[in-house]
Amino acid sequence: MNNTISIESELKKSYLEYSLSVIIGRAIPDVRDGLKPVHRRILFAMHDLGNTFNRPYKKSARVVGDVIGKYHPHGDSAVYDALVRMAQEFSMRDPLVDGQGNFGSIDGDAAAAMRYTEARMAKLCGEFLSDIEKNTVDFRANYDNTLQEPAVLPTKVPNLLLNGTAGIAVGMATNIPPHNLGELINGTVHLLDNPECAVTDLMKHIKGPDFPTGAMVYGGKGLEDAYHTGRGSIRIRGVVEREERKGNRESIIIKEIPYALNKSTLVEKIALLVNEKKIEGITDLRDESDRTGIRIVMDLKRGAIADIIINALYKYTPLETSFGINMMAVVDNRPMLLNLKQVLEYFLEHRREVIIRRTKFDKDKAEKRVHVLEGLKIAVDNIDEVVKLIRGSSSPEEARNKLIERFELSEIQARAILDMRLQKLTGLERDKLLEELSELLKLIEYYTSILENEEVLKGVIREELQEIHQNYTTPRRSVLLDHNPSEIDIEDLIADDDAVITLSRRGYIKRTPLSNYQAQRRGGKGIAGVQTGDGDFILNFLVTTNHQWLLLFTNQGKMFKIKAHQVPEGSRYAKGAHIANLLPLHKEEYVAAAISLRELSEDRFFLFVTRKGMIKRSSQDLYANCRSSGLKAVNLRDGDELMSVMEVYPQSDCILATQDGTAIRFNIRDARPMGRATAGVKGISLRENDRVVAAVVTSDDDRTQLLTVSEGGFGKRTGIDQYRVQTRGGKGILNMRLTAKTGQVLGARLVNETDELMLLTSTNKIIRLRADDISLTRGRATQGVRLVRMDEEGTVIGFDLVRETEIDKD
Predict the structure, then answer these.
(1) Active-site residue numbers?
(2) Residue 224 and residue 228: Cα distance in Å, rounded?
(3) Secondary element (H or E) of residue 569
C-alpha cells in the first residue's frame, strides 16, 4: 500500500482548514448576533451562572474559568481581554457587560487582574439570550463533547451594527463601526415594512456611525460606498472648543476624541509637536479629564490665533482620523462582504426563525397542557365514577389502565388524574381549570396565526423591536457633519499676517513680518535692513499678506505664481534664500516685477510696461493657469526688458515716469486688450539713454498725489491734476527737477496722507515714514525734500507703500 502524499496538496488542505478555522472560529463575527465565538461563549457562560443584571456581581475569574473550562479552550488572558472590552464604555457603544472595578481607561491603562474585578451581564445583554431555553437556536457540542453550547444567540438586537467589530483573519478582515440603537431599530422596522426599499431609503433612518467617544463624523461618498457595497471610508474629527481666560487670552479644549484613539498618546503627540515648534502658540498643555468626560486643555499665548492651532492639531495629530469600513461577516459558515440592507435582512431572517421556533415550542407546550387539562376535566365531570374505579383497583397501574379503558384517555391524562389532589374537586378549582383551558386554547390559536400568517409574524417582530427601542435607546453621541472637512491646507496653519517681500537683483528673496519695521520721522537714518552683499541691490520690495498670490514677472517676460507664505521667512537684516530654490530661472533672468493679489479675475486687467516704453493690457484670467515652469506673459523686442506689471481698469489713467524726470499721462482705453503672447503698443517716446522707471495707475480711491523718489533720497508729492491727459506715445512733460544731489528718478507711486512709505538704501538701511511728512508741492518741476539722510556714496535702491496701517510703536 502506497502512503505517499503530495506536500503541496497537503499544505493547501491544511492551510485552508486553518484559515477557515480562524475566520469562522475567531476573527469574523456572525451576521445574526454580531458576536465572535469568544464573546458568545462569555455571555452564555454568564447566563448559565445566573450572572444577570439583577443579580449580584461575580468575580471575573469565576466567569473566565467557566468559559475556558466549558466552552473556549484557549488562554485565560484572551477571554478576560474580551470580557473587559465588553465592559468598556469607550469601546462599546452599548456595553454588554456591567463591570465593577478597574476595567482599564481610554488612556490605554490595562484592567486590573481578573481576581480583583467583578462582572455581570448588562441589562441589554438579557435581550441577547431571551428565550434561548425554548429551542430558538441550534446547539452544538463543546470542544470535549461533554456539554452543549449555542451556535448563535437568539438576540433581539442588531448587534453587528450596534457595537461594531474589528478583526483580522487569514486573507481578510472586518472593521464595522458602531451605530445608534434607535436609528438601527427605525431602519430595521422600515425594511420589515418595505422589503423592496433601497439602501438610500435605509440611510434616511440610519444616518451614519455613532461612536461611544462621540466626535464629529463625515461620511459623504465614503459612507455611501460602505452602505451600498460594504467598503468605504469616513473621517472622524475630535470636538474642540475655545474658552476665554484672564488677560485677553484663550484656551483650546479638546472635549471628544476619535474612536479607538488612546488619549494619553494624543497628549504626548501634541507635546512633541509643541517642543519641535511644528505647533506654535501653546504655553501650557494639561489633561483635566475625569469620570465626567474628556478635557485636554491648551493655554495659548496672548495674540495666538486659535483657529490656526486647531487646524494644526487636525493636520498633525490623530485628532482627525480616517475609519475604513469593511462590513465582512459570517453567513452560513462563509465569510461575506455585506451592504447595509443585507446586514439588516439577515438579522430579520434570524428574528423570523427565532420567533417561529419559539412559537412552535410554546404552542407544543400549550397543546400538551391542554391535553392534560382535557383529561382532568373528564375526571372532574365524572368524579364519583373515577373515585369508585380508583378505590376498586389493587395498584396504580391497574387504576391507570381502567381509566384509559373506561374514559378513552391517554396514558398522560390518566397519570395526571391519578396525581390530582382532592382540592381540585372544589367548585373554585374546577372553575380555574376551565379558565386555564380556555386561555390556553386562545394562546394556541394565536400561536397558530403567527405560524400561518406572515403579517402576524411581522407584527410580533415589529412589536419586539419597538420594545427594544423604547427601553434601551440613548441619544446620538457623534455629530454627523453635512460638509466635508477637507484636507487641511497648509494655509490653514499660517496666519494671514502682513508681510514684506524683498527680492534682490541677484535673486535673493525673503519674507519678513511687517511688524518688524516701526514707523519713523522724515529725515531719519532708518534701521538696519537686508544685507545684500557687494554688487547686489534690492529690485522688488512690496507689502502683502501671507495668503495672497505672489505673481513674479521676470525681465524676459515670463510669469511664475506662488503663495506669499511659500517665500522663506527671514529677519529684516537676513540675506534671504536664492530665488532658484523657488523658480526655474535661466541665466541672466531675474524677477523684474511682482504683484500680490487674492485671485485672478476675468473682468480685471494687467498692464505690462517695458523699459523702452511699450505697454500691453491683457485680461487676468489669461494668466490663471500657470504651470510650475512658468508661462510667457509678454513678447519683448530686442534689447527690451519687462519693467512693471500692474492691475488696471479701463476707466483709469496711467502715468509713466522715466529716470530722466519726465512723465506722461494717458487713458488705459488707449491700449486695447490683447492676448497673452503679444508685444503691445508704445506708451511713451523716450529720449536717448532714457528709460521708464515707474508706472502708476489712477483709481477711484483718494490717492490723488504722485510721490516721486530719487536715488539721492529726495522725494516730492504732487497732485495728479498737475499731469494733463495726453495721447499715449508722446514724449510727456517734466515730472521732477533733477540735480547731482537728487540723482536720477528711482520710481513713483500714488499716495494719500494716511499712507506710509518704506525706503531701502544701498547701505542696507530701511526707513518707514508717513506720506504726510513729505511736503505737497504746488508745481511739478521741483526737486522735493530729503526723505532719508544718506551715508557717503549711498543711494535709495527700492521703496514701497504700506497701505492704511497703524504705525507700529516700540
Answers:
(1) 116
(2) 6
(3) none
> Which candidate, 553, 550, 798, 556, places its Cα nearest to that of 693?
798
The three state secondary structure string of 396-422 is HHHHHHHHHHHHCCCHHHHHHHHHCCH
CA distance 233 to 212: 18
What local confidence, expressed as pLDDT, does residue 492 receive?
58
pLDDT tens digits for range 534-584: 445 566 677 888 888 888 888 899 999 888 887 877 776 777 777 777 788
Q: CATH classification of 345-472, choosing from 1.10.357.140, 3.90.960.10, 1.10.268.10, 1.10.3230.20?
A: 1.10.268.10
Of residues 651, 779, 644, the one with CA closest to residue 723? 779
**Cβ-contact 92, 163 below 8 angstroms:** yes
DSSP collapsed to 3 states, 56-121: CCEEHHHHHHHHHHHCCCCCHHHHHHHHHHHHCCCCCCCCCEEEECCCCCCCCCCCCCCCCCEEEE
CA distance 254 to 260: 16
Nearest in space to 96 (alpha carbons), one of 63, 61, 62? 63
CA distance 247 to 226: 49
- Here the cell at position 85 is 472590552
Q: How far apart are CA 562 and CA 783, in angstroms?
A: 39
Q: Domain 35-154 belongs to what topology?
A: Topoisomerase II; domain 5 (3.90.199)
Q: pLDDT per residue over 630-639, tens digit each?
A: 888 999 988 8
- Per-residue HEC secondary structure of 696-713 comes to EECCCCCCCEEEEEECCC
User: Taking the CA of residue 691 as centre, how many other CA atoms within 13 Å lie in the half-sphere pointing to its CB?
Assistant: 12
- Owner of C-alpha cell 496711467: 654
Is-contact 662 734, C-beta < 8 A? yes
* pLDDT of res. 490: 56
Return the pLDDT at 494.
65
- For 239, list phi and psi in degrees, rounded to 5: -95, 125
Q: What is the pLDDT of residue 549?
A: 85
What is the C-alpha to C-alpha distance for residues 437 and 445, in angstroms, rounded to an integer? 12
Cell readout for 192 is: 420589515
In this structure, the number of other CB atoms found within 10 A of the CB of residue 461 comes to 18
| Cβ atoms of residues 617 and 604 within 8 Å | no
Residues of the chain with pLDDT under 50: 520-521, 523-528, 534-535, 805-810
CA–CA–CA angle 323, 324, 328 (5° rounding): 130
The residues pairing with 706 across neighbouring beta strands, listed in sequence order, are 718, 750
CA dist 635 and 119 (Å) reads 83
pLDDT at residue 155 in the model: 96
What is residue 752's DSSP assignment? Answer: -
What residue has cell string 526655474? 584
Could you say which architecture CATH assigns to the domain 239-318?
2-Layer Sandwich (3.30)
DSSP secondary-structure letter at 676? S
Give the C-alpha separation, 735 to 723, whole Å: 8
CA distance 486 to 54: 48
162: exposed, middle or buried (C-beta count within 10 Å: 0-12, 13-18, 19+)? Answer: buried
In the chain, where the domains are located: 35-154, 239-318, 345-472, 496-802
Beta bridge partners of 344: none
Distances (CA, A) of 321 to 183, 215, 405, 590, 642: 24, 11, 80, 44, 49
CATH code for the domain defined by 496-802: 2.120.10.90
Quickly tell me which residue has 420567533 as its cell: 355
CA 165 to chain centre: 21
Concatenated DSSP letters of 239-285:
EEEEEEETTTEEEEEEEE--TT--HHHHHHHHHHHHHTTSS-SEEEE
Q: Report yes or no: 527 and 766 within 8 Å, Cβ to Cβ.
A: yes
**Residue of 202, 230, 207, 211 whose CA lies nearest to 220:** 207
